Amino acid sequence: MEYVIETKNLMKKYPNKIAVNNVNMHVKKGDIYGFIGKNGAGKTSTMKLILGLSNPTSGEIIINNSRYLIKERKKIGSLIEAPGLFKNKTAFENLKQFSLVSGGTDKEIKEILEIVGLSKTGNRKAGNFSLGMRQRLGIGIALLGNPEILILDEPINGLDPEGIKDVRDTLIKLNKKRGVTLIISSHLLDELAKITTTYGIINDGVLVEEITSSELLKRISKSLKIKTSDNNKAFELLKSNNFDVIKEQDYLSLKNNMDKSNLIAKLIVNSNLELFELSIDNQNFEKYFIERIGR
């Protein structure tokens, strides 16, 4: 499979810390890639490496199947940390100012203002905008030059529910109507879950897992949690009886078999295994990530 962004064993070392540790990231065209991790996990460091704002210690970055990054990075828009706005200028004037570097006609600027929901702000100065409006203006600046990929670091951090919805609607519109591939970091898991198609979970600089949203939904649905005296043998036993069983850290998880608990218990006991636990595990979204990145 081809990816619009791929990293291979990407490393960023500092004298007393490894910020990015052998990260192998895979972002498909059209993805909304939710980059999840605690503060200091390596999200921003990885994004800066991809954008060329920081140099890797080792490893590779491949953009649009190319290692010629100077050219390919021109197809990426970004908003890392807070947007640097001209507070005494209007939304249009801000975009006009930034277009001197990124390119963009007055027509394109008006289209961007429409997309980010700031077309009716008129002569209002950016310094008087709400935090959500400033974030959307920052996204608008990132859209100058018609990028194919947008990298956004915590775009909804600190926003009220209305501001979060406005930014979320903007991102969905960009993805669905303009085909923009998005990489979004956030620690607001419930909000990210509303739009993400693929998740990358990072912890202490290590990319713990990449998982699609559809696969994640399968894993966090109701299941039977099974612990036995030998989980490996129990796994093989249930597999051979056509049960959809998954190995977790210290237990087995069985999907969509709530009504067959008696049969499962009988199978295990008749195979001379001790059954320590057979319970319903309704694992939620947040619990799933906590188990992978720790508290």
The largest pleated sheet is described as: 6 strands, mixed
Low-confidence stretches: none
Give the count of helical stretches.
Answer: 11
Strand order of the largest sheet: 6-7-8-4-9-10
Helix content: 25-40%
Task: Quickly name the level 1 CATH class of the largest domain.
Answer: Alpha Beta
In angstroms, what separates the terminal alpha carbons? 34 Å
Radius of gyration: 23 Å
Strand content: 25-35%
CATH H-tier superfamily of the largest domain: P-loop containing nucleotide triphosphate hydrolases
**What's the architecture of the largest domain, going by CATH?**
3-Layer(aba) Sandwich
SS-based structural class?
A: alpha/beta
SSE arrangement, N to C: EEEEHEHEHHHEHEHEEHEHEEHEH
| Average predicted confidence as pLDDT | 89
Number of domains: 2
> Quick one: overall form?
elongated
- By DSSP, the count of extended strands is 14
Structure description:
The chain has 295 residues and is of the alpha/beta class. It folds into two domains: 5-216, Rossmann fold, CATH 3.40.50.300; 222-293, Alpha-Beta Plaits. Helix content is 36%, strand content 26%. It contains eleven helices and 14 strands. The protein has helices spanning 43-51, 69-72, 91-102, 106-115, 131-142, 161-178, 189-193, 213-220, 231-240, 261-270, 285-293; strands spanning 5-14, 17-23, 26-27, 32-36, 58-63, 76-79, 149-153, 181-186, 198-203, 206-212, 223-228, 245-247, 252-255, 275-281. It has a six-stranded mixed beta sheet, with helices on both faces. Strands 1, 2, 3 and 5 form a four-stranded antiparallel beta sheet that branches. Strand 7 (149-153), helix 6 and strand 8 (181-186) form a beta-alpha-beta unit. Helix 3 (91-102) packs across helix 4 and helix 5 runs parallel beside helix 6. It is elongated and about 75 Å long. The two termini are 34 Å apart. The model has no long low-confidence stretch (mean pLDDT 89).
